[in-house]
Amino acid sequence: MEVSNWHNDLTYDKWVPITVSGARPPARYKHAAAVVDEKLYIVGGSRNGRHLSDVQVFDSRSLTWSSLKLKADTGKDNGNSSQENLPATSGHSMIRWGEKLLILGGNSRGSYDTLTVLYIDIGTCQFGVIKTSGSVPVPRVGQSATLVGSRVILFGGEDRSRKLLNDVHVLDLESMTWDILKTSQTPPAPRYDHVAAMHGERYLMIFGGCSHSVFFNDLHLLDLQTMEWSQPQSQGDLVSPRAGHAGITIDESWFIVGGGDNKNGCPETLVLNMSNLVWSVLDVVKQKDPLSSEGLSLCSGLIDGETYLFSFGGYNGKYSNEVFVMRPKAKNTLRPKIFQSPAAAAAAASVTSAYALSKSEKLDFTQLDVTNPKSSVNGHHQDDISVKIEAIKEEKRLLELSIAEVRAGNSKLGGEIHEVNSTHAELTKELQSVQGQLVAERSRCFNLEAKISELQKLLESMQSVEDQVQALRQKKSAFDQEMEHAATAQRQSSGGVWRLFGGSEK
């Protein structure tokens, strides 16, 4: 099989490590990634507490890595013409805008008072600082940046004084002007290392992240038309708290990979159907797999017209520089949209925030980046115990997932029962109303029947009167005839006498 056709034999919905040709880039986490024309661009990141400034490019056709050599654009870097190299940065966000990669925020050695926006021109291999205006946000790390049309929506993060943020800013890429979005209702608790996605170019969705003490698994929604926050209820598989995970959307599906809680990584790849808010587990890797890491990246790209997922890097006690690919199976997206949440759900964010403030400081993943000489020398007995512990943890996780599925099923049945009960109550009220109407109609019919009976009696009496009138008419007619006969007879009798008298005179 040719190298360029390696993707044709991939199994759907399964992560596969890619065997690359040649050297790999340095392992890292908290970098930024984007796919442009079948090439995966990796920018910056962190390793052993040191920020990186390189740009690495993975060709998905030839399966080879290369470095992108950049030069400063002295005409557009706003006074930074002396800078020869791209600033070393980690914890930043990156957006593709045409042939440019825009880098927002992050942790670097610069002394900017406001959030910096850098650009990398892929065509010219130049970089520079973009001058922005308006209400420019403060510098931050671990924020989310989401592209919506020609705007970038920035949410949350952690500023230089380690203050956690939950503000919302928008950058117009046409005018390079910042604005602050004023929202209502209860926002998510301040956090960083979360993920964000857009649905329908109207709803901004925030998932997970952490404070200095608490890891979140909550889902929040900002309606960009009403500027109202809500916390919609989701269903499906159990979703564990996590931070440092990565997400990407394809149609109605939001894919979530990796993350952790400073104790364990998250080995499951989650998919949220954004139309009906149902979580499902797509794939599960081993606990110490690079895909079960914090600070990894996730991108989507087209190869021969088909969409693929690419993941790179991460840290789970060991830094990774491997590339993994998944061939997601097309999902049916003809589902109804349900973004209305119960009114009381928004209060959960404030409860979560209060709980977060009551806990101790969060451990840093970088503190775990210390190899244990004792474990590296390793005795087989200790390794066997570790394997057994991992197996037990995996069984426990699977049991928890099964329990979560049962609970989700019970919750769904409970909802259906509640809906049936509500429908029954409504039908009962409607039946009572109809019964009341029937009683009124029966009373009305009884009154009508009484009136009809009276009318019938009246008609009968009128018939009797009419008969009497007819009889009188007949008597009158007979009397009139008798009178007529009598008058005729009298006239005849009177005429004969006069004629008798007259004849005698002649």
**End-to-end separation:** 163 Å
Taken as a percent bin, the fraction of beta residues is 25-35%
**Tally of DSSP β-strands:** 29
Fraction of helical residues? 25-40%
Question: Sheet with the most strands?
Answer: 5 strands, mixed
Q: Order of strands across the widest beta sheet?
A: 6-12-11-9-8
Tally of DSSP helical segments: 3
Poorly predicted sequence stretches spanning 5 or more consecutive residues: 76-82, 333-381, 496-506
Question: How would you describe this structure in keywords?
Answer:
506 residues, alpha+beta, five-stranded mixed beta sheet, 3 helices, 28% helix, disordered C terminus
Structure overview:
With 506 residues, this protein is of the alpha+beta class. Helices cover 28% and strands 29% of the residues. The protein is built from 3 helices and 29 strands. The strands form 7 sheets. The protein has a 5-stranded mixed beta sheet with strand order 6-12-11-9-8, with no helix packed on it. The protein has a 5-stranded mixed beta sheet with strand order 13-17-16-15-14, with no helix packed on it. Strands 22-26-25-24-23 form a 5-stranded mixed beta sheet. A hairpin with a 2-residue loop joins strand 27 (297-303) and strand 28 (306-312). The longest helix has 126 residues, at 380-505. InterPro entries: ACBP4-6_C, Gal_Oxase/kelch_b-propeller, Kelch-typ_b-propeller. Residues 484-506 are annotated as: Disordered. It comes from Pisum sativum. This is Acyl-CoA-binding domain-containing protein. Residues 417-482 form a coiled coil.
